[in-house]
Structures are given as structure tokens and as C-alpha cells.
Specification:
Distance between the termini: 100 Å
Strand content: 15-25%
Radius of gyration: 29 Å
CATH architecture of the largest domain: 2-Layer Sandwich
Helix content: 25-40%
Number of helices: 19
Number of strands: 23
Structural class: alpha/beta
Oligomer: single chain
Largest sheet: 8 strands, mixed
Shape: elongated
Amino acid sequence: MLPTSHYSKKHADYAVAFIENLQHTKGIWAGQPFKLFPWQEQIVRDLFGILKPNGYRQFRQCFVEICKKSGKSELAAAIALFLLCADKEQGAEIYGCACDRQQASVVFDVARDMVMQNAALRRVCKVVNSQKRIIYLPTRSFYVAVSKYVVSKFGINVHGCIFDELLGQTDRKLYDAMLNGADAARKQPLGFVITTAGSDRNSICYNVHQKALDVLEGRKIDPTFYPVVFCAEDDDDWRDPEVWRRVNPSYGQIVDDEYYENFYERAKSDPAEEIQFRQFFLCQWTNSSKRWLPMDKYDKGNVPFKADDLAGRVCFAGLDLASTDDIAALVLVFPPENEGENYYVLPYFWIPKENLLRRVRKDHVPYDVWERQGYLETTEGNIIHYDFIEQKILELSRKFHIVEILYDRWSAIQMAQNLEGYDIKMTDFGQGFKSMSPPSKELMRIVLDEKFIHGGNPALRWMFDNVFIETDAAGNIKPSKKKSSEKIDGAVATIMALDGAIRRSDKAAESSSSVWIFDGDKMYKNNEIWEGD
């Protein structure tokens, strides 16, 4: 049995006094003394006031899981400065870690501003902004925001670690290096971990979350681990304002009803926003994937139109070529010619003819009906012949002004090279969060605004209804082929095409104002038919 620890009010008061001599750095609180909220003060008093019989601190790790806009970053910055400047540790090394250096700099920047606002600390600290480093001169100690690369390359001797947004870690290597690698060299190191809830229940963040609950509820005993968890339960109603107040102990002080209600209104009609609201503002663990579009809003775009109505118009294309069992998809997106007008969408799909009936029986999807109705085409044999698609693209390029074709770089390199030979601009397009998130979010906005006109193509509707999305720690989204229940190739191609439309359509429209398109019969410009000889 471990010796009994005791509470030292003197040590606790010392830590609280240091922190409350700092100042807030942002918003309406900037310049005001950092008066700890009750939940923050309880953490500080317990971490620095509960001592072992030998006089050193009992807790070596603190895990704080709490929603955004609660004051956790400011608390973390203040604790970093205490470990740096007030803990009387010679040569202390304090590290700020996160999924990347930019995220690690969030807490660091608050700590830096706290130093600059405090005359006493300014005299004894040196701030090196280019290195994201604060040096405390009397003890030759430093606090630095680091990347995973730096930690793995150089030796460390951790006295303190501020670990921000643990949910962003893809594995436990950095966590183990920073939180479990300091015991031999330091007598009372402290790892201070702050995070919101995540979505991956196989992650290091969820593992530590579960340990925190086990310790809080008595299923595990770890006297060196201090858990703080403010989160909504799985069965809590995320729409209930009482839940909002319960999970944010700073509710009514940093944020109020209006702040939450604004985000909630967006989340009600957007599944992607719902996931972010539940994770980041209720600290509720969610699934990483969720069915995406509200199909009642999507169906508002079932407005009949003919492809000929768009002849000569500027458009952007998304190309998602098929693997063995997928559907090859080409989708043209026509941006509005004038503000407030609609986006028009023309999809084209291909599957191998020999596989058609087998896939109807296997997938229980009416590909054969869609073929007869003209909503998809088949190519001879048991694989899709890409030269057939190339010819279709060349045919479409004579009818419409295709400014650019965006394609999945892993599946269409050869076709891209072929089409560039016909002076068609081809742009490879990544399938990760960075590339997919902006146009995915814009597509949701356009659908909700009922500006997405697709004419009721049943194959495209089926694909959009299949889409499940994934989110990352930064709130980015992307459609997930892995998690979606059925094929989503047309939806992915639409998103790629829309990226071109929303980022380059203004410039393209200007450059196309004097371009005439000949389709073999008539000449068109911006829907105008040439009347001359």
C-alpha cells in the first residue's frame, strides 16, 4: 500500500497566486487578471497541493477532457508558465505538443502573451518567436512548442508537457515519449493533457478517456493520474440546453445561451455540423462517419432541364474512374452565370456490360433499369474501357466549355496525359481532408439553399444518399468510400468538380466571354446561338 499523501494549502496557495497574477490575453477578457473559475482552481490546488510524504507532488499526469470555449487553453498556458518560472526546477524543459506544431502553438501563443503583459516576467524571460520558445533565465529553463519530428530526433528531459488536443494523435508514440519518458530524470514531472472528445474509439485519446472514467468510477486505481472529464454521455440529448450547461463548467461566464444556440441552429439541418457540435461543444464521443446530405433538400433540385440548354456554358468536371467493382463517374458542374442563380449538374456513369446483370443481382441496385433509361452507359467486356470515356469527354468538350477536369490522381494518370494532348486542362485532386473539405461544405450549403439543380438523375441521387462522411480533429470533412454503405463515385466526382467551380469560376467566366463552341451543328456562346454565316 502506498504511503498516504497530504494536502498542503501553502503549496496550493502558491500556485493559485502565481496564476492569478497573470492576465487574460484575448477578447473582452484581455488585460484582466486571470481569476480562476472554480473548476480551474480545483485542478490547480489538487495538482500542486497534494504531496507525497517525501514532499514531491503526487500527480504526474492530468487529463482534462472538456468542450471548446471553456478556458482550457488559458489554464494550460498558465500551468506551463508556473512549471517554467515558479517551480524552482533547474534546467526545466517544458514542451508543448499536439498533432502538429501549429496546434501546439495555440497554447504557446497564449503563454507568450501572458509573459509580455507581466512586467516581472518580461524582465526574467526571453521570448524567441521564431523558435516558439520562452527561456526563463534564472534557472536556464525553457518552454517550446514542438513537432513530432523534433521529439523523435532529439533527446528530451521532460519536466512538463502541455499536450493539446490528444484526439488529433494517430498513434501513441508522441504521447508515450512525452508522458512516460520523464520519470528517471525528474522528481515531479507533470504532463498536462487537454482535449475535446473525438470520434475514433480505437485511438489513444479514447484509451486515455476510458482510463479517466475508470479511475473516476473506481474501476482502476492510479494515484499518479488526475482525471477531469466534462462530457455528455452517449444517450444524452444533444439538443437539450440543460446538457449544454452541464458539460461546460464555464457556461454563463465565457459563453452563454446565444453562443450555443447559433451553432445548434446550423447543426439541426447539417449532419456534419451536428457531429462537430456534439464533439466540440458537448464533448460527446461520436461515430467518425455519419450519413451526410438531407435528401429532402437534395430532392428540391429535381427540376427538369436539357443538356442542350447548357450548350456553350462554362463548366468544371470531376472524374472518378472505377476500380473493378466501382462505377466510373464524370460529373459536369455549371456555376451560376449571375449572382443568386443555380448550379446545374450533368452526371455520366459507366459500368462493364458483362457485369451488369451480376451486379444487379449482387448489389440489388437497378443498374439495368438505369441503363435503359439512359442514366448510365455500359462498355463492352468485363472491365471499363477508358478510351470510351475519353471519347465521351472529347465529345462533351465540343458542346460545353469545360474549363478544367479534376481527377483522382491515383486512378486517371494515363487518361489525363491523353486528354492534355487535346488541350484539355487536367488537374489531379487529392482525396484527403485538405482537398475534399472546402467543396464538401460548400456543396452542403448549396443544397440547403436549394440551388443544386440535378434534374432527378436516380443514379446520382442513390450515390448521394449513400454518402457517409468522416471528420478530423480540425473539423474538416470528407466523404468516406470505406464507411459508406454503397457506391458514392458520382458524389465524389461532383465534389471535385465543384471545387473547380467555386475557386475558379469567376476567372473562367471572364476568359470565356469571347469563346464560341462548335458542336458539329451550331455555334454557341454563353447559351447564345451564332446567327451569322
